[in-house]
Amino acid sequence: MTDTARRDDRSEAVKETSFITAVIRAMENAHPDPYLVDRHAELLSTPRSKMLAAEALAAGGTVGSVIVRGRFGDIALRQAVAEGITQAVCLAAGSDTRAWRLGLPSDTRFFEIDLPGQLEAKEMLLAPVKDQLACRRVSLSEDLRSEIWPHRLIAAGYAVNRPTVWIVEGLLPYLQVEQFTRLITDVKEISAPGSVLLIDAPHAEFYRDPDNEQFLAFMKSRGSAFQLGLDDFADFLGRYGWRAEAYTLRQLSEGACAWLPSPPARLCPPHDHHWLARAYLA
Ligand SMILES: C[S@@+](CC[C@H](N)C(=O)[O-])C[C@H]1O[C@@H](n2cnc3c(N)ncnc32)[C@H](O)[C@@H]1O
Predict the structure, then answer these.
(1) Residue 87 above 60 pLDDT?
(2) For residue 144, how far is its CA from the centre of ligand 1 (angstroms)?
């Protein structure tokens, strides 16, 4: 296999992780007492996606980080929009359905970025609900490890002088720390004061806990290895200029975040060491 073919294979495997998160959200939506309501996730749950999700769950994959960050992000995005923010950028948007399901005001610009092919596939599957897209959605196919994406975002109409809600969910496991620091620096450089960052990441403990060994080996073997883990997310974000409130899943389940309903224990098992953060740019 050539180097390019190997890179393409890895990209496919990483892209497919967003099919897995869609199925996880559809499963939660069907729960008798759902913590997250995403009624469009079922449209994204193709037979192949369901098979991929079943494999990941059988290998010990957890669902809590996906579901809890979904609710966390919904509440924080709605609040930011209610306070007057009219621009959002969802990086590694994958199967995110917020532009369709949150009823965002029509003057909201909602940019989505993901690797080539990913957002087009979602648009096709969400065709039955395309009339629910009230905001001004713009999608871009970009590799967020490159230096070019901020320029392309600006060329696509992103306004650098407007406060923005940045949503970065489920991306960090697939980045090396240097790639993340460049990304977070680029984001800050094109963010106006008052911008909000909603972001999640594995805790470093995720990699140290023997209960995650099988899942980590599975993700590596399928070409989507988890790479990045952080011991103190708020401190890390603070070093890059973002004033952050960060919580582990366990802290959230114990009621640590005043504005988020505590997630149930079923979504916060002890080995799911994961950070969720909301951060501001002063
Ligand atoms: C686990 S999914 C998360 C998707 C969505 N944010 C969610 O929470 O469901 C990871 C997503 O990151 C995207 N991704 C990974 N590496 C990327 C990169 N270098 N550039 C752009 N997108 C990337 C994948 O294509 C995939 O859609």
Answers:
(1) yes
(2) 9
| φ, ψ for residue 188, nearest 5 deg | -65, -40
Instruction: Report residue 94 as tokens.
Output: 């994958």
Q: What separation in Å is there between the alpha carbon of 79 and the centre of ligand 1? A: 24
- What is the CA(90)–ligand 1 centre distance, in A? 10
What spacing in Å lies between the alpha carbon of 118 and ligand 1's midpoint? 9
| 3-state DSSP assignment of residue 207 | helix
Q: Which of 12, 17, 69, 227 to mutate to test the pocket of ligand 1 (most atoms within 8 A of CB)?
A: 17
Query: What confidence tens digit (pLDDT) does each residue in 175-214 have?
Result: 999 999 999 999 999 999 999 999 999 999 999 999 999 9
Q: Give distance in angstroms: CA of 250 to centre of ligand 1.
A: 24
Nearest CA among 135, 91, 132 for reference residue 110: 135
Q: Which atom of ligand 1 is nearest to the CA of 15?
A: 25
pLDDT digits over 221-245, tens only?
999 999 999 999 999 999 999 999 9
pLDDT tens-digit series, residues 12-42: 889 999 999 999 999 999 999 999 999 999 9
Q: How many helices (H) and strands (E) does the chain have?
A: 12, 7
- For the entire predicted model, the pTM comes to 0.96
Ligand 1, residues at Cβ distance < 6 Å: 14-15, 17-18, 21, 92-96, 114-115, 118, 143-145, 169-171, 174
Taking the C-alpha atoms of residue 247 and residue 265, their distance in angstroms, rounded to an integer, is: 15
Class assignment of domain 62-211+229-280? alpha beta
- Whether 6 shows a pLDDT value over 50: the answer reads no
Q: What angle do CA 176, 67, 135 make, to 5 degrees?
A: 90
- The structural domains of the chain, with segments of one domain joined by +, span 62-211+229-280
**Beta strand 243-248 with 274-280: parallel, antiparallel or unpaired?**
antiparallel
